[in-house]
Each structure stands twice: as structure tokens, then as C-alpha cells.
């Protein structure tokens, strides 16, 4: 072993100045390689025409649609407009759902009676697939913007409420005691201690909620969803435009990754003490 | 002898029972028949074997629990709950990780309604007293165990409480840090003249820091020894000729109490 030692530093550990960059480069390289490999296999299979293009169009056809929909549009709206409208719905729906969820979670976590009364409802709603209550929302609110926003609010509220309620109940009693000994009155505690203490768990709930809202937006847009990325997919399916459907899937997937990355960054900014207490 | 002014802290016939989980009505006695009166400026150290109700005693004074029997009063007023007149330093630092070091120290001042500039100046002063003037902007989880306890002490002192309660504040620290912290608490006490009540299972610490030492017996905790000592006012109590004898006497009482 010691015989090998002189060689190892240069072979395994890169020079100090590139030490921080090398792993990042390698990880990026691996990702690029996996995406490139996937595209290559896709291209080869489509090229071999195992299935007709209406079942599996090639990457080239999807790219052409990407260019066409972003310049000329599809169903009267460009790709950016479709995506923008969907993202706006997700944003409005999950912000309202988060605010409602935090308030509801605070009440459930702090008031035992509220937990007994409201807890089962939250659990019940959480188990419902959004598509199941969409019909009811359409009957109530019509086919405009309202049922879509309501669907996202209802879908994203329970995860935040449950995460908040659990976190609130997990507040260390001595944190509350310390605050009281420093002169905090009982009504100061929710805002000064309980809520900030629960931030890491609430942020986890928010990430789940946005994920749920993201998967639900396509469901919400099955009824009169144009403009909207889900509406665009739905429309393309009616005319067997498989390349547009796949384009829609890729756009949803990529923007979902971006959104989750943004939320992770927000999490690190808002609750940097997570796991380090 | 002139009549003494109102004691800073007075416990009369205090006893406390904990409810035992699971069994309806079953209780475990933690403390019983505690009569204790503490004058302003004293540093009372309570020593005792584990399970002697030391922490219970402190938590009753802090107002975290109501005593089952008897009364606890501070400056003649009965304790009804936690309050800023009694600063608390916990065994595990209960610093707020969502605030900076400064934010933690300013918390009590903010609750007292002080203006921003005043808060800042007072917090800076307190942090300087515990040697952490440069750490104000740090987050609490970036600090070592000893530094965290110093912040906890600064935070407890900032609202200028009449009494400071310390529940085994150095129990979780390594021996070297612990010794340094003991010395710092002694100089803080000499400097501020605060009334202190602290809990420890370390007899050496009790003798180095306490102007008054109380030994509690095993469950239920009763006072088995209550003695006054002048060692902490000496230059270096650990080297005082009486130190070893006092320590041995207290240690003997603690051992006897544990039986």
C-alpha cells in the first residue's frame, strides 16, 4: 500500500486549485452523457421505424415542433404563453394553498379541539385525486380560471397543513419556556417561536405542495385548458400530434426541475439551520 | 440585628409531584418540604444525586411548573409563570437558530419594547462581557458548545433579570471548556452582583461558585445540607486552603444523600 502512495495524490486528487471544480465538471459531464445517450437511443429507435412516427416521432420532429410552437404558436398561443399561463396558475394556486395550509396547520397544531375537528377532513381531502373533484369544481365555478385555481389550492393546501401541524406540535417546550423567560407573552409565541421553528418542515411541505400543484395543473387544464401546457397536450392528443404531446411533456418536466431547484435554493435561504441545530 | 429586607427568592413548604404516564392519578414525588430563602447577591448552588429534583426546583422558580404544595415567591411576589425577572440558562442551549447571535441576545430586549439602537448597544455590551463581541453576526449553529452557552448567558442577562437560574449549564461541555466557563461565571457574578441559582452534580463546581450550597437528597428531594461559603469571593477559590475540606464535606453529604 505504502509503495503506491507516491503515485496516488496525482492520480486521484486533482491539483488544489482545480479541486473545487473537478467534481462539478464530472457531475455535469455525467448528466450531459446520460441525456445525450437517451437522445441517441430515441433517435435510433425512431429512425429504425419500429413504430410509425404517429406513435413515436423522432427527436428532430419534436425539436421542429418546439421551434414552430414557440414562433408561430399552437392553438392560437405560443409555447411560452402556454407555459406561462400554466406556471401562473401553479404560482397562484400554490401560494394561496401554502398560506391557507400554514394558517390551518397552525390552528390544528396549536388548538387540540381544532385538531380533532379538522384533522380528519384534511386527511380525507389529501387522499382524493385532484381529477376526482375537478368535476365538482366545474359544476360550481364553470369552465373559466376559477375551477383551475381552486383545484390547485385544494391540492396544495393539505401537504402544507399537515407539515405545519406536525412541526408546530414538535416545538421544543424549552424553546417556548426560554421565550417566556425572556418576557414573551403567550400571544407572541406563534409568530416569534412556533412559526420560525417550523420553517424547515413547512418548506418541505411547500415543496411537496408545489409538486402536487404541478402534477395537478395538467388535470385542471383538461377542461377548457387553452392556453395552458396541459390544454396544449390535450389539444394535440385530439389531433394525434404526438410530437407536440412529447414536446409538452418535456417542457413540463424541465420547468418542474427548475421550479424544484428554485424551491431548494429558497429552502436553504429561509431555513439554513435545517439539520444543524 | 436589623430586620433583613425581603428575600430575593423564598420557597416555603414547597413540594412537587409528577404525574406518572399511563396510570390515572399515580404520581411520583420529586421534591418535598423545601424551605429556602435567598438574599439578593447570593449565589446558591444546588447539588444532589440524579433524581433528587434539582431541575424541578429550578423549573418551579422559573415558573415552568406550578408547585404541588407550598409557595415560591420572588421579591415577595408569588411566581405564577415564567417572566423576564428570572433569566434562565438551560442545560442544552435553547438558542433560536432562526436568529443570529445578536438576534438571540436582543430577543428579551425586543420583548421589553426597547428601541433598535438601545437593543443593539445593550446586546453588544452583553456579548462583550462573555467575550463574543465579534460573533454577533454569526448563526447559533455555527458556534461551539462553549460559545453557545456564552450566548445563552448573554441572552439571559440582557433583559437585566433580578435572578439568573442556570440548570447544569456546563453539563454538556468538555472538562477544559467547563473549567473556563466556571471561572467566567464567577467573574460575571462578581462583576454584576446578580442573584444566582444554579444546579450542578459537580461538587467541585458547587464549591468554586457557590456562596451558599444546598444538598438535596434522593427522591423525593429534601434539603439535607445548607451551608454558606465565602470561597467564591477569594482570588482563586480552587487554591484556597479551605477548598479541599469544603469539597470533601459536601461530597460526603451528596454520597450520603444518594443512599
TrEMBL record, chain A:
Read off the CDD domains from this record. Answer: TM_PBP2 (cd06261)
Name the residues that span the membrane.
90-111, 123-143, 244-263
Record-level GO cellular component terms: plasma membrane
Localization per record: Cell membrane
Q: Name one Pfam family in it.
A: BPD_transp_1
What residue stretches are annotated with the ABC transmembrane type-1 domain?
87-263
Primary localization: membrane
Spell out the family assignment given in the record's similarity comment. Belongs to the binding-protein-dependent transport system permease family.
Know the name of this protein? ABC transporter permease
- Give the originating organism: Nocardiopsis eucommiae
UniProtKB/TrEMBL annotation, chain B:
SMART domains xrefs = AAA (SM00382)
Q: Which domain of life is it from?
A: Bacteria
**An example Gene Ontology molecular-function term:** ATP binding
From the record, give the transmembrane residue ranges. Answer: none
Q: Give coiled-coil spans as residue ranges.
A: none
Q: Which UniProt keywords apply?
A: ATP-binding, Cell inner membrane, Cell membrane, Membrane, Nucleotide-binding, Translocase, Transport
What InterPro entries does this protein's entry cite? AAA+_ATPase, ABC_transporter-like_ATP-bd, ABC_transporter-like_CS, ABC_transporter_ATP-bind, P-loop_NTPase
Q: What is this protein called?
A: ABC transporter ATP-binding protein
Looking at the record, the residues that make up the ABC transporter domain are: 9-243
Read off the Pfam families from this record: ABC_tran
Amino acid at each position: 500500500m505504502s509503495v503506491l502512495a507516491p503515485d496516488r495524490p496525482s492520480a486521484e486528487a486533482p491539483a488544489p486549485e482545480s479541486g473545487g471544480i473537478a467534481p462539478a465538471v464530472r457531475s455535469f459531464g455525467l448528466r450531459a452523457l446520460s441525456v445525450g445517450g437517451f437522445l441517441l437511443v430515441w433517435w435510433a429507435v425512431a429512425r429504425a421505424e419500429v413504430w410509425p412516427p404517429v406513435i413515436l416521432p423522432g427527436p428532430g420532429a419534436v425539436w421542429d415542433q418546439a421551434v414552430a410552437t414557440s414562433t408561430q404558436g399552437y392553438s392560437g398561443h405560443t409555447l411560452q404563453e402556454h407555459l406561462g399561463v400554466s406556471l401562473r396558475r401553479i404560482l397562484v394556486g400554490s401560494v394561496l394553498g401554502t398560506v391557507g395550509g400554514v394558517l390551518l396547520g397552525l390552528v390544528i397544531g396549536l388548538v387540540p379541539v381544532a385538531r380533532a375537528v379538522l384533522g380528519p377532513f384534511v386527511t380525507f381531502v389529501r387522499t382524493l385525486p385532484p381529477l376526482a373533484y375537478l368535476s365538482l369544481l366545474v359544476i360550481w365555478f364553470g369552465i373559466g380560471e376559477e375551477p383551475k385555481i381552486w383545484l390547485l389550492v385544494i391540492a396544495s393546501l393539505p401537504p402544507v397543513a399537515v407539515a405545519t401541524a406536525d412541526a408546530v406540535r414538535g416545538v421544543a417546550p424549552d424553546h417556548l419556556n426560554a421565550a417566556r423567560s425572556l418576557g414573551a407573552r403567550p400571544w407572541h409565541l406563534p409568530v416569534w417561536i412556533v412559526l420560525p421553528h417550523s420553517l424547515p418542515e413547512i418548506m418541505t411541505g411547500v415543496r411537496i405542495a408545489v409538486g402536487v400543484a404541478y402534477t395537478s395543473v395538467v388535470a385542471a387544464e383538461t377542461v377548457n385548458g387553452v392556453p395552458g401546457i396541459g390544454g396544449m397536450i390535450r389539444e394535440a392528443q385530439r389531433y394525434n400530434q404526438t410530437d407536440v404531446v412529447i414536446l409538452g411533456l418535456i417542457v413540463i418536466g424541465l420547468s418542474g426541475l427548475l421550479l424544484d431547484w428554485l424551491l431548494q435554493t429558497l429552502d436553504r435561504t429561509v431555513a439554513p439551520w435545517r439539520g444543524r441545530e | 440585628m436589623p430586620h433583613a429586607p425581603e428575600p430575593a427568592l423564598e420557597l416555603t413548604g414547597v413540594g412537587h409531584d409528577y404525574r406518572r404516564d399511563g396510570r390515572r392519578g399515580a404520581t411520583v414525588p420529586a421534591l418535598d418540604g423545601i424551605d429556602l430563602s435567598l438574599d439578593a447577591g447570593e449565589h446558591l448552588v444546588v447539588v444532589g444525586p440524579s433524581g433528587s429534583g434539582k431541575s424541578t426546583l429550578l423549573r418551579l422558580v422559573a415558573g415552568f411548573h406550578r408547585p404541588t404544595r407550598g409557595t415560591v415567591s420572588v421579591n415577595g411576589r408569588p411566581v405564577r409563570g415564567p417572566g423576564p425577572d428570572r433569566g434562565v440558562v438551560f442545560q442544552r442551549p435553547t438558542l433560536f437558530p432562526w436568529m443570529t447571535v445578536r438576534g438571540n441576545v436582543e430577543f428579551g430586549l425586543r420583548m421589553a419594547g426597547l428601541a433598535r439602537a438601545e437593543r443593539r448597544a445593550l446586546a453588544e455590551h452583553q456579548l462583550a462581557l462573555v467575550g463574543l463581541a465579534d460573533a454577533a453576526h454569526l448563526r447559533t449553529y455555527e458556534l461551539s458548545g462553549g460559545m453557545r452557552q456564552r450566548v445563552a448567558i448573554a441572552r439571559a442577562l440582557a433583559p437585566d433579570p433580578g435572578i439568573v437560574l442556570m440548570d447544569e449549564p456546563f453539563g454538556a461541555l468538555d472538562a477544559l471548556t467547563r473549567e473556563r466557563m466556571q471561572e467566567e461565571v464567577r467573574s460575571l457574578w462578581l462583576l454584576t452582583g446578580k442573584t444566582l441559582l444554579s444546579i450542578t452534580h459537580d461538587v467541585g463546581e458547587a464549591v468554586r461558585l457557590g456562596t451558599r450550597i444546598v444538598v438535596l437528597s434522593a427522591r423525593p428531594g429534601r434539603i439535607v445540607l445548607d451551608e454558606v461559603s465565602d470561597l467564591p469571593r477569594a482570588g482563586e477559590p480552587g487554591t484556597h486552603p479551605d477548598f479541599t475540606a469544603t469539597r470533601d464535606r459536601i461530597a460526603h453529604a451528596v454520597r450520603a444523600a444518594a443512599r
